[in-house]
Amino acid sequence: MSVALSCLGGVALDVLLGEPRRGHPLVAFGKLADRLEHHFNGPGGRGWRSHGVTAWCLAVLPLTAVAWLLGSLPTVGWLVEICLLYMALGLRSLGDHLLPVARALRQGDLAEARQRVGFIVSRDTRELDEQGVARAATESALENGSDAVFAALFWFVLAGAPGVVLYRLSNTLDAMWGYRNERFERFGWAAARIDDVLNFIPARLVALTYALLGHTRRAWRCWRTQAPLWDSPNAGPVMAAGAGALGVALGGPAVYHGELHHRPVLGEGEAPQARDIERALDMVWAGVGLWLLALLLGGWLDA
């Protein structure tokens, strides 16, 4: 029951406070990661896989150990754990970034919608039409709901404060180093593979959650047939099941860093619109409620 209550407390803090506007620990961690990458990878990306492993260990393991020590403190350890979970969650932030995109689309302000969605996705948004903007935002809601919310909860339940810190820092390094380009192909290999491993089980639990909260049979069919075609082993199940649950078509061509990528289509149905961004966010919120309810029920039965 204590784990369930801690999860409830962390989610409540995130909903009430949102991301810290000043002094967010992940911002400081990002600066540390930049310095490590510059030292071990060099300006020309000359680092090898072993350099990436070393840099990952130096960035993640000491802070994970600190989280374990702080979470083990008598009397205040439980409060530290709740605060660390809060820092790792991005539930309210997801809505703060995506709802303005939907609002701009509803108002017919395509330029504003492109700019807003460009803050949260890595693809080129300058030439997107309304459907392209809605598609990018809906994909972001489903995938980031998995990475920034559900996976953090999963690792907190499984391993407490050190688990959620290890996961969140690893996920951040994947976002910074896990690119398949000349600079990061070798150096970022460890960050990308570790993130894949840490997200493997949570992503499938999230896909199941999305399927249960929408059109279950269609979500399962899309997950089974379309997810293996996606280049990410974890984003594929999450977005295929989510798109199937919502009854929209995601994926398709997208431009990343000036290069056109022909992505498979995920889901079934019409192209997404502004309302589908909101529906995807509602499904993430409902999924969090479902997880919390299951944790509280499980804790009550064990009491």
TrEMBL record:
Is Chaperone included in the keywords of this UniProt record? Answer: no
Its localization reads: Cell membrane
Q: What is its main location?
A: membrane
- GO CC terms of this entry: plasma membrane
The answer to whether the entry has keyword Secreted is no
Question: Can you say what this protein is called?
Answer: Cobalamin biosynthesis protein CobD
Its biological purpose is as follows: Converts cobyric acid to cobinamide by the addition of aminopropanol on the F carboxylic group.
User: Which pathway does it serve?
Assistant: Cofactor biosynthesis; adenosylcobalamin biosynthesis
BP-aspect Gene Ontology terms = cobalamin biosynthetic process
Q: Kindly state which keywords UniProt assigns to this record, in alphabetical order.
A: Cell membrane, Cobalamin biosynthesis, Membrane, Transmembrane, Transmembrane helix
| UniProt lineage | Bacteria, Pseudomonadati, Pseudomonadota, Gammaproteobacteria, Pseudomonadales
Annotated signal sequence range: none
**Membrane association type:** Multi-pass membrane protein
Any GO molecular function: ABC-type vitamin B12 transporter activity
Which species expresses this protein natively?
Stutzerimonas zhaodongensis
